[in-house]
Automatic annotation (TrEMBL):
Protein name as catalogued: CPXCG motif-containing cysteine-rich protein
InterPro entries: zinc_ribbon_bacterial
Protein origin, superkingdom: Bacteria
């Protein structure tokens, strides 16, 4: 698993998520651990390296 820290697009708090680098590109929804709003997360991996990451509000 890969842990990545980023800013929540709703509350702007620093949060972390664990991601699976065995899938090179995926999109899924996970709730913010601080404000509980749903975040659309799109990580992209090459091997075990995170090469792209986007976290955005749902419906934006």
């Amino acid at each position: 698993m890969y842990e990545h820290f980023f800013q929540c697009p709703y509350c702007w708090e620093k949060v972390s998520m664990l991601m699976d680098p065995s899938v090179s590109k995926q999109t899924y929804i996970e709730d913010c651990e601080v404000c509980c709003n749903p975040i659309e997360v799109t990580p992209e991996f090459q091997g075990d390296a995170l090469v792209g990451f986007e976290a955005r509000e749902i419906g934006q």
